[in-house]
Amino acid sequence: MNTSNKFREPQHSQAFVLRSLRLSFVLLVVMLCALTSFVLVSAALSNGELRAASALTITPGVSTDPTGVLVTLDARGTWHEATSTASGTASSGCLRTWVKAFVPVYLDRGGPLWGGRHPMPRAPTPAYVAYHVYCGGIYVTSIWVLPTAFQATPPNVRGLALQIVARLRYPALAIAVNPAHRGLAGLNTLFATNGFSGAPIRDSVRGFGATVEVEATPSAVSWQTGDGSASRRVPFANGTRGLIAHLYERRSPSPGYTVTASIELAVRWRFNSGAWSGLSPITRAASITYPVIASRSRLVRSP
Length: 303
What we know:
CATH superfamily of the largest domain: Immunoglobulins
CATH class of the largest domain: Mainly Beta
Strand content: 25-35%
Shape: elongated
Low-confidence stretches: 3-9, 37-60, 84-92, 109-116
Number of domains: 2
Radius of gyration: 33 Å
Number of helices: 2
Strand order of the largest sheet: 1-2-3-4-5
Order of helices and strands: HEEEEEHEEEEEEEEEE
Mean pLDDT: 76
Helix content: 10-25%
CATH architecture of the largest domain: Sandwich
């Protein structure tokens, strides 16, 4: 008996270690899944929007239906209630936010870390999209909504168009000059721009029942030659790129004249392939230092 127990004890100890390792691995997987859920949800909100997401912070009496509510759409695809009205809002007058859910789960049972353990019911149809609803930055619930329920009219999404314009990828503006290194007083100097081809620069945000398009097209170039001459504004064309000829009448002070080119882009936007509407023009500028020398003539006695 004693000999048998001596051989069995190591086996029991080894089985215990294996069970402990399996349990640790399962706990690690659960924690990683929970952390992933938290990161995905938090990424959809700014720091000010995510105050709480537990059952203790649910706001009662708040309608989650966006129908008939004036909303705005931001570049992240989040809908924001534009004004607090009696239609569908809480008596406290909080402004609601509908954030597209990365995973169709509820966040109201233990917070984001455990939201993945409480999935939402199936969508009524594939056209529905899952949203987390917040009231004044406090989580209310998660719902299925048709994107068409959001009333994204052109006046409401104009702010989104301005956001898109601000993030357009504009090429770097440069100045081309001839003569290249220094000019000569009394001789024409040619200036033109480099970087912009003249083709419209476009971007858009699509989805969530709305499509907002913007485009910016170079239209004119304003030149300041640095010698006190009046600014000159010329049309921008693909072939000329704002080309001008300027005659410097005197040499420049050291290190040279400051030449500045300002390219103006006409900006317009449209909503759901409707008519184009204009926005304020965008300007991009570049400067160079351009030295100008003066030639001197002198009489030379002939031999």
